[in-house]
Structure prediction request, 345 residues.
Amino acid sequence: MIKALRQDRDLSDEQFRALLETDAYDAELKAAAHAVRLEHYGTDVYLRGLIEFTNYCKNNCLYCGIRRGNQKIRRYRLSEDEILGCCAEGYALGYRTFVLQGGEDPYFTDERICSIVSAIHSRYPDCAITLSIGERSHESYHAYFEAGAERYLLRHETADPVHYAKLHPSDMSCEHRQQCLFDLKHIGYQVGAGLMVGSPFQTTDCLIADLRFLQKLQPDMIGIGPFLSHKDTPFRDEPSGDLKLTLRLLGILRLMFPDVLLPATTALGTLHPLGREMGLQTGGNVVMPNLSPTAVREQYMLYDNKICTGEESAQCKGCLERRVESIGLHIVSSRGDAKCFRRSV
Ligand code: SAM
Ligand code: FES
Prediction:
């Protein structure tokens, strides 16, 4: 099955089910995923500097620590100057991609987002700007693209509408989120979709639907990490996603999409102290260290016990460098575009 997956980049639903539901093939999958990453990306690991610039959110996703309904967190927004300060620090540390992530915060109008994006773009024309600010209109996405944003991360969360409805209030829809992803792609963004492994009510069928959706979308990036509970959300008592299953999915995705950018996520590093290393050894080729000011990191708590909230940006970079080197891979200081993406300019 693993040979077939590597060769054809596809399996039947029943074969995917067999692969997902047992750990019998994990060692072979890991070896194949690592071989494919070496073929396509060598030992390179790309860095993305993550700037969590607002924890205000108008949405109320049941799993998320910064959901509107959580009245226990202190809300913050970074100013344009503070964001530019994070970029300056990141640039000096060798980052060539900045990811601006936040809750869905209406304060950040199109005008404000465009102003921030174009300020970063004009100061750092050699850097890629990634946005991760949720669902907006085609028109807004277009305006950000014109201002200089080239990549967009919007996890689809789950491709099964019934499952989606169990994770989100009724004012949010699976179809709308997926439409946003197609809009982004159509505009010309490098697009990242993704999901939480082990989110409440997730079944193998949901995961197979996710794989089929990803085949349809053909994203440039796929962000997957375990679900982890947050004490002030309705899912406070739900169990965490499974480490082995998360790694298994990373391996499967590397074989299905040999050129895709696949981060070893902070959530994976929170689930297990060596989670990110394991992710990088099972097909992962991206790490996203935090560049947010340490003063606000504790407030961007999507789930309990999130790592890297106390460390300075330089500490996180040094820590990750050591971790990546320890497994024979190397961080490279480049934009790290997806191989499958042809830049139109
Ligand atoms: N608002 C933007 C959006 O909706 O895409 C970006 C921020 S959102 C907090 C980023 C991602 O965090 C989500 O797509 C979700 O998959 C992940 N996330 C939220 N809560 C989580 C949890 N409890 N465990 C693991 N991941 C979580
Ligand atoms: Fe932040 Fe290790 S990456 S402390």
Observations:
- The beta strands are 44-47, 49-54, 97-102, 128-132, 151-153, 190-197, 221-226, 286-287, 330-332.
- The two ends are 40 Å apart (CA to CA).
- The chain has one domain: 13-332.
- The mean pLDDT is 96.
